[in-house]
Amino acid sequence: MPCLNLFTNVSLDEIDISSILSEASKSVANIIGKPESYVMIVVKGSIPMLFGGTDEPTAYGELVSIGGLNPDTNKKLSAAISTILETKLSVPKSRFYLKFHDTKRSDFGWNGTTF
């Protein structure tokens, strides 16, 4: 059930958002080793954000997963997601933070119950 939430100050009006969603979904599933049918990707643009004292393109993300996260996997995820943001939204890798949450099944709801 990996869920990736991405927030950026970049406007998504002229962006092919479906390619970002698709690439991120495939990357998360492949790197974590979970079926893509369980992966959720959320991207919100035009969020007022400041990083390093400037409002140049920046982004913040949080990835929640029930298992599958560890230091090696997190490095791979950070590299993959930052590359997508850099190529698709012109957000430099140095202006992107990604926070990882490894959660318990009982702490995540789905299908009217918990995992």
Label this structure with key terms.
115 residues; 2 helices; Macrophage migration inhibitory factor homolog; 4-stranded mixed β-sheet; alpha/beta; 30% helix; phenylpyruvate tautomerase activity; two-stranded antiparallel sheet
Report on the architecture of this protein.
The N and C termini lie close together (9 Å). The chain has 2 helices and 6 strands; from the N terminus they run βαββαβββ. Helix 1 (17-32) runs antiparallel to helix 2. Strand 3, helix 2 and strand 4 (96-102) form a beta-alpha-beta unit. The chain is globular. A 4-stranded mixed beta sheet has the order 2-1-3-4, covered by helices on one side. A two-stranded antiparallel sheet has the order 5-6. It is α/β, with parallel strands linked by helices.
What can be said about this structure in brief?
Belongs to the MIF family. The chain is an alpha/beta fold and 115 residues long.
Which structural class is indicated by helix and strand composition?
Answer: alpha/beta
Largest sheet: 4 strands, mixed
Mean pLDDT: 96
Spans with pLDDT under 50 lasting ≥5 residues?
none
What coarse outline follows from CA principal-axis ratios? globular
How many β-strand stretches?
6
Helix content: 25-40%
Strand order of the largest sheet: 2-1-3-4
SS element count, helices: 2
Distance between the termini: 9 Å
The percent range for strand residues is 25-35%
* CA gyration radius, whole angstroms: 14 Å
Order of helices and strands: EHEEHEEE
Protein name: Macrophage migration inhibitory factor homolog
Organism: Papaver atlanticum
InterPro entries: Macrophage_inhib_fac, Tautomerase/MIF_sf
GO molecular function: phenylpyruvate tautomerase activity
